[in-house]
Inverse folding.
DNA sequence: TAACCCATGTAACCTGTTACATGATTAA
DNA sequence: TTAATCATGTAACAGGTTACATGGGTTA
């Protein structure tokens, strides 16, 4: 159900086509939820038949036509109700940790190199979150309630990526100290 | 594919039944990967037909019989190869963050109460990770390579839960400061 | 006597991934 | 002229969830 609600949340600010959403799912809402374009198109049809979205066909020359979806009153209220229901924190599901856990099956060098790869990736992610956070300006106190909510959610990304970076450093140090 | 490898990793130390594994997926490997018993039974059959596991039927009085699975040489080598292949960090997928992102649709009080609920949950999780970490003793330098790998993986849980707790505090403060 | 533990599974369903398909326009 | 961008989708499959089913033994 979460994808449906992530889409509704993404359409709160303004209307989008499926193609736009697929791209936005690499930024904004995409910082918290990921989906492929196939999933998004499937879900958009469902949400439209459920009456949570309305759809307008935009005919274009020199470009394929597109369907622009907007959230309806019913969609807003469904989203509000869902937000009000308690969620449980997602369990950790992380390939790398299984690999480290059973990491003695490969050489120390290769294991550490893999962790370093992740380190670099997390540094890139962190920069993206930080750039997004900075776009809200210096004076957080002045933000509207809507903006404060968005900002608070974004901060989670900064926290997460930072903790990952620290863990990578820790793990590398720990494994390097081994004689084997 | 990850579930299969998580199971293989869990069976490295010693053999288990499906029932045992389902429970262990709440501890040890379960700190990094989650699966229901239905998934586990399905995957165990597959791994056995692939030759990565062998199975022994243990007949019991006063208890249902059980099937105890052990990793085979082929299973070990498949696991080793998988560990050697690069993985990409999992994208964040977190209901709570969507809810906070669109949190202006419900009252400030309710949103903050929900974040507090998560705070309490993460504190419980953190204690579990810390207890597991402590079981490795004080002198980390003395651990075997196998233990160091397990320990390093566990530390990720401590990092993660701690960063979550900090974020919850941040987010609550930020939202409380709002007049709305 | 009710609820939980042990222990295994099936079936239906929903979610997510991979591969395939089309076809014009635009930038390198 | 090659590749990328825009824009939508279908089909097959793999992964994950929920509900159901069984049945003896143990604990409250």
């Amino acid at each position: 159900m979460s994808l449906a609600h992530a889409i509704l949340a993404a359409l709160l600010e303004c209307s989008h086509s499926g193609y736009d959403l697929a791209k936005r799912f690499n930024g904004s809402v995409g910082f918290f939820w990921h989906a492929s374009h196939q999933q998004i198109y499937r879900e958009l049809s469902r949400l439209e038949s459920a009456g949570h979205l309305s759809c307008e066909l935009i005919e274009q020359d020199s470009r394929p036509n597109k369907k622009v979806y907007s959230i309806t009153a019913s969609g807003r209220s469904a989203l509000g109700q869902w937000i009000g229901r308690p969620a449980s924190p997602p369990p950790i599901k992380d390939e790398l940790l299984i690999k480290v856990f059973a990491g003695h099956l490969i050489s120390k060098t290769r294991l550490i190199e893999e962790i370093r790869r992740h380190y670099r990736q997390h540094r890139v992610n962190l920069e993206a979150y930080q750039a997004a956070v900075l776009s809200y300006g210096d004076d957080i106190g002045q933000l509207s309630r809507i903006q404060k909510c968005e900002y608070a959610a974004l901060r989670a990304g900064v926290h997460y990526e930072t903790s990952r970076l620290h863990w990578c450093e820790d793990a590398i140090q720990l494994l390097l100290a081994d004689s084997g």
User: Anything to note?
Assistant: The first strand of chain A starts at residue 16 and ends at 17.
